[in-house]
């Protein structure tokens, strides 16, 4: 049963269990207020415990909210604010109760840090949070400064152990996500290879039928026509029928060869859709014509690699939740419009991925247009010719498809 629970869910349940265990101390203090490490107990202790209760419950609620789908989505600004509130609540529990219970809750926070922050910031967060509880050890708890520091460092050691465990779990989750992504790319490449093999085999069969069977049937038809002129009577009638059948069979062979060649296009839908499956933290929406056929295997490979590179770049750099891929095939062109809802960028030059896509497209007469700005996502418009086009006049591959494509900056 536990094997089926992912690392992030186990972390969530362990944190909630620890939070509930800390709540047992609240019940003890409610039953016996004398156990509170306070100098004086008067009517204010009720208000103090109520404040502690509010902070404690707020910690649990924020932790429940912030760990929803942990690891399956990219943390946003509200998640980071929730983490800050969670840390403040943990420290507040110690200050309101005058105990080290907040340090225990900081261990729960330590289990979240690797999932939500870069490593250096997470380590600094861990150290600052644990040292913020130091005045409790030297104040209400009455420890000497050296003992208080050792106490804080001891709890920091426990938090570091939790932090390291969560970091390893996070790295394993990332490795699994990367493995799933690579597996999707492998299946897409295998599908393209299978389609290419199928097309090549159909082309070979069509060529063999045309070159061998067609040649022999033509020779047979010519010989029967000669025999028809050299015979007479009943034999001539049978020779004429054989000649007619030979011409009919030759026509059927030619028609079959034409159909085989016409059906030799690669179905790109079956090739591209595996790329959209199991993409970690990103919902990929593909819209394409039905059927989506390309006769040239090399151009099919270009479209596959460009799609693969777009998805990879979005996962690694865009911090996006959604990626839309719209394919269009008309007028001798294949057009791909990609748009994500990520952070965007100030585009000052092409990286290796974008440069590679542009070079792939340019090798076959295609083009690429980039549109992006900070906070507005990242958009790519790709055009790839799949038919011979006239070269006397410049050709607009986006003619009539979108109004803003013509004003997009060229890169």
Question: What does it look like?
Answer:
This protein is of the alpha+beta class. The protein is 62% helix and 10% strand. Strands 2-4-5-7-6 form a 5-stranded mixed β-sheet, covered by helices on one side. Strands 1-3 form a two-stranded antiparallel ribbon. Helix 2 (44-66) runs antiparallel to helix 3, helix 6 (119-131) runs antiparallel to helix 8 and helix 8 (145-230) packs antiparallel against helix 9 (234-262). The longest helix has 86 residues, at 145-230. It is rod-shaped and about 130 Å long.
Strand adjacency order, main sheet: 2-4-5-7-6
The low-confidence runs, each spanning 5 or more residues with pLDDT under 50, are: 390-394, 400-411
The mean pLDDT is 77
The proportion of residues in beta strands is 5-15%
Query: How many strands, which pairing sense, and closed or not: the largest β-sheet?
Result: 5 strands, mixed
The portion of residues assigned to helices is 55-70%
**What is the N-to-C order of secondary-structure elements (H for helix, E for strand)?**
HHHHHHHHHEHEEHEEHEE
Distance between the termini: 53 Å
Total helical segments: 12
Structure class: alpha+beta
Would you report the number of β strands? 7
Overall form:
rod-shaped
Q: Tell me the Rg in angstroms.
A: 35 Å
